[in-house]
Amino acid sequence: MTGREMYARTHPVTILYNLRRVLFLTVIPVARGLVLALQQDFLSWARGAWVDISAVLVMVGIAALYWYSIGFYCDDKAVFLRSGILRRKITVMPWDKAASVSMLETFTARTLGAVNFRADTLGGSRKRADISIYLSKEKARALMASHKEKSGEGTRKYVPQRRSVALMSLLASNSLGGVIFLAAFVSQSGKLLGEEFSAMLLLSFEDFARGLAFGLPPAGAAIAYALLGGWAVGFLRNYAGYKDFTVHSGESSLRIKSGAVSRREYIIRRDKINFIDIRQNITAKLFGLYTLYICAVGYGKGKNDISCIIPSTKAPEFNRALGLLFPGLSPAKLTVVPPRKNIARFIGQPIAACAGIAVSAVLFLRLFPSWDSFIMFTGFMLLVPAGLFLAVRLEAYKTSGIAKKDGVYTVCYCAGINLHTAVIPEDKIISVRFTQSLPQRRKRQFCNVLIHTVSEGKARHLCRNLPLDEVMGLFDE
Fold first, then answer.
1. What is the DSSP letter of 1?
2. What is the pTM of this model?
3. Cα gap 308→318, rounded to integer Å
4. CA-CA distance, 333 to 402, in Å (whole number)?
5. Is the pLDDT of residue 124 over 90?
6. What is the mean pLDDT of residues 181-193?
7. In Å, what is the CA distance from 244 to each residue of 255, 291, 416?
8. Residue 403: band (very low, low, confident or very high) from pLDDT cuts 50, 70, 90
9. Which pLDDT score is estimated for 371?
10. C-alpha 449: how far from chain center
11. Main-chain phi, psi angles of 191, to 5 degrees
12. Comparing C-alpha atoms, which of 167, 165, 463 is closest to residue 334?
């Protein structure tokens, strides 16, 4: 058998996705049609329609030629992918180097009988899979089964409760509190924008908003409802993505399946999981909810991917699921924590932000007294995220720290509006950096610790204001 005969074709739906590579050619018919529409008539456009038809045929021809050049082949050791029209490229991915393999059935591809098969290694691109091809469902399942045989079948099964998936979707839908804040702000500020702003909106939507405004300006209410509708769409999209979520846990791999509209299946090697990340925002903290994410090559990478492993749940259920899926990666009790007397290191920035907003509001009130109600409302609304920032830092002050147990580090810190508890195997740490600000250098007792871990992109964990000697002792080896 020759080398060419060894390679199998990908699914013809690849031609449709390849058309995205040549969309720049649409500038020819679009520009010609625009010029003729402005200067001449329909008959003039029709007489030169062969230009548009030729451009479309060239686009389809290039996409089909590129599909014809793609072929794949696999054996017990590796997957081979051939591509390229003018310059031939062959990608070889050994099975034992694959951190994860997955297949995604989007609604569009599924109706055409196609599945997107992907395979990722640590050495690949942060944004694109090392191997990403469209295959028939039978061929994709055969490749998944081949990798499953090599990585082992899961013997333990975890299925979260529906309310856990709903809570996670609720909290992850672009921040419910943030959307409500924006909706209220736009609704109130619409009082100053008047009819000119209202005229920018579609009349039908404005009529709808007018009926449900409840005393608010119709234009502001319309945008508020649009923002809340956007959040609702995000919630439904997250919930649909995690519907029928199931994790099969084995000694050497995890197999994850989920999705209602777009169906997903992943096989992730345990030794390629860089760390686990227990996350909480302030809302989850108040209700005692925990959510677990993992950092693994190829998982949560694409825009249609999922990234969670244990959806939002209470501590007892969360600990049970954590022990089932990751028995060797439980968080340890913190041994190095920030000194309780140095709270200013945590709340200095949010306090400065709150003070800056208040001073700015007073200044604008003096400069523009006729806008007093709008300025006061705007200042109050800006204090909301600043107050949220302060609450996160206060919680981080109480919960931050580092511990080491059995070759595994537990690192608790805050980043943005989330509290993180990262559990990191020692061999996944790339570098540890100790930094000191000017006040810390004067006392020579405290430092900030920046830990970089293995990842396709940038994975960093920053713990603030820890005792220098104690934290250096944890990393002496």
1. -
2. 0.79
3. 13
4. 9
5. no
6. 49
7. 13, 17, 30
8. very high
9. 80
10. 25
11. -65, -30
12. 463
